[in-house]
Amino acid sequence: MIGWLYDLAGRRVEKGELGERRHELVGDLEGDVLEVGAGTGLNLQHYERASRVVAVEPDPSMAGRLRRRAPEATVPVEIVAGTAESLPFEDESFETAVITFVLCSVEDPQAALAEVRRVLAPGGRLILLEHVRGEGRLASWQDRLTPLHRKVAGNCNLNRRTRDEVAAAGFDVAGLRPVRIPGSHPLVRSGLQGVAIKTSS
Ligand SMILES: C[S@@+](CC[C@H](N)C(=O)[O-])C[C@H]1O[C@@H](n2cnc3c(N)ncnc32)[C@H](O)[C@@H]1O
Q1: What are the residue ranges of helices labelled H in 120-157?
Q2: Among 81, 83, 106, 173, which lies 20 to 30 A Cα-Cα from 55?
Q3: Does the structural domain 3-198 have CATH classification 3.30.565.10?
Q4: Which of 165, 46, 157, 20 has its CA nearest to residue 101?
Q5: Could you tell me if 181 and 164 are in contact, meaning their C-beta atoms sit under 8 angstroms apart?
Q6: Which residue minimizes the CA distance to atom 1 of ligand 1?
């Protein structure tokens, strides 16, 4: 993914409703926070109370902008090159993880979520915002167009059943709710937002 293009495409909505959504999600988080697939760092400016954000990002183009943005954050940010499927952290080392618009593009959501679960403390929280598979005709179009969309949009799948994936990975998903993704085209407008809790089994 090309970092500057990603930021340019979202510039208007990030200043408005999507920026507000990010603020709502991460503004009050405390302690050490792990952000997986941090991209160009669009969440960073919205953290206000975290003692540290550890931002994992595999793509050099996205990470370049993330590095430039990190000093502007009001909380300390540590950037780590890595993937969700193989997080370079000890078991149970974070209370909170943040994932926004990433599970659509990882190769293997179950492997990624298993890793996030591993590094979360018992009862740890996964803060999530993702676009997901819709219903009816929309879902049919998402299924049809996903192969093409993956090619042109950094492996982004339009039709992931993310709520089911998160539940299957060992999280309580009662705190995840359907939302509309602000400023997006219809194919990525169905969203999922909220908090999933790591279950004990
Ligand atoms: C659409 S961008 C979202 C970036 C950021 N989270 C945001 O909310 O703006 C998707 C990000 O997921 C990252 N990504 C893709 N596959 C990944 C993986 N296996 N592990 C971690 N990050 C991944 C990409 O490099 C990209 O930065």
Answers
A1: 136-152
A2: 173
A3: no
A4: 157
A5: no
A6: 101
Q: What residue type is assigned to position 58 of the chain?
A: P
C-alpha 56 to ligand 1 mean position (Å): 9
pLDDT category of residue 147 using cuts at 50, 70 and 90? very high
As a whole number, mean pLDDT of residues 39-56 equals: 98
With bands split at pLDDT 50, 70 and 90, how would you rate the model's confidence at 183? confident
Tokens of residue 64, six digits: 């370049």
Residue-wise pLDDT for 26-44, tens only, equals 999 999 999 999 999 999 9
- Domain ranges in the chain are 3-198
Residues 182 and 63: their CA atoms lie apart, in Å, by: 24
Q: Which residues line ligand 1 (CB under 6 A)?
A: 1, 36-39, 42-43, 57-59, 62, 83-85, 100-102, 105-106
Name the amino acid, one letter, at 83: T
Indicate the residue type of 128. Answer: L
- Specify whether the CB–CB gap between 14 and 23 falls below 8 A: no
How far is it, in rounded angstroms, from Cα 137 to Cα 142? 9
The encoded tokens of residue 153 equal 């949009």
Q: Letter for the amino acid at 145?
A: L
> Which of 47, 86, 105, 115, when mutated, tests ligand 1's pocket best, judged by the most ligand atoms within 8 Å of its CB?
105
Question: What average pLDDT does this structure show over 11-24?
Answer: 94
pLDDT in tens, 96-140: 999 999 999 999 999 999 999 999 999 999 999 999 999 999 999
